[in-house]
Amino acid sequence: MSCENNSITETQKVSGSVPSVVPDQDHATVEFAAANDRDHKYLTQAVEEAYIGVECGDGRPFGAVIVHKNEILVSCHNMVLKYKDPTAHAEIIAIREACKKLNEIKLSECELYASCEPCPMCFGAIHLSRLKRLVYGAKAEAAVAIGFNSIIADGVRGIGCYHKSNLEIKKLDVSIAEQVFQNTKGKFSI
Ligand SMILES: [Zn+2]
Questions:
Q1: How far is the CA of 1 from the centre of ligand 1 (A)?
Q2: What is d(CA 174, CA 177) in angstroms, rounded to the nearest whole number?
Q3: pLDDT tens digit sequence for 112-156
Q4: Which are the catalytic amino acids?
Q5: Distance 67 CA to ligand 1 centre (A)
Q6: Ligand 1 mean position, distance from CA 119 (Å)
Q7: Of the candidates 23, 43, 41, 44, which has an alpha carbon nearest to the alpha carbon of residue 33?
Q8: Is residue 33 scored above 70 in pLDDT?
Q9: 89 CA distance to ligand 1 centroid (A)?
């Protein structure tokens, strides 16, 4: 992605009107560009986890990273096949590991980066764990296209949890997140 080095004056002028999903490059701020770089970095890590999980036979192509105070706290992938556990989604594994590491049941100082839009179970867990922010890459449709259950799309876009949560949700437009599914297709069982 490109980073515009706009002046601080311009930054102040447009603050408050910065779009939450895709930056308009004409109005991109220094802060916004930096935040977007940061989001891309952590989301790329989540996508790498998705590949690792498939390569080592642990699970399906989904990865999740939890960031705490600007540092990666845990980096996990889907473990459904290894654990023989249909609930061992990357986000669930990451939330459990993060809670253990912090010795907390609330992750209110943490952000979760998911390679794909979280399913309803994971979105519920994200809500219950009080994560402050969710950034995801691929839309559910990219997973559904290779055979995953279309219920995935009901997580973030389902109405109940979404409206009850104070979570900031951001969809990053990164093609690498969508490509995971086509690139790993046939290398795991659904
Ligand atoms: Zn899930």
A1: 28
A2: 6
A3: 999 999 999 999 999 999 999 999 999 999 999 999 999 999 988
A4: 91
A5: 18
A6: 4
A7: 23
A8: yes
A9: 5
Q: Which pair of structure tokens corresponds to residue 159? A: 């109405």
Distance in angstroms (rounded) separating the CA atoms of residues 23 and 13: 15
> Under DSSP, is residue 78 helix (H, G, I), strand (E, B) or coil?
coil
Between the two ends of the chain, the Cα-to-Cα distance in Å is: 33
pLDDT digit string, tens, across residues 35-80? 889 999 999 999 999 999 999 999 999 999 999 999 999 999 999 9
CA distances from 101 to 33, 72, 106, 108 (A): 30, 12, 12, 14
Sign of the C-alpha dihedral computed for residues 22, 28, 33 and 35 taken in this order? negative
Q: Which two tokens stand for residue 169?
A: 């949700």
pTM of the model: 0.82
Residues making up the chain, counted from first to last: 190
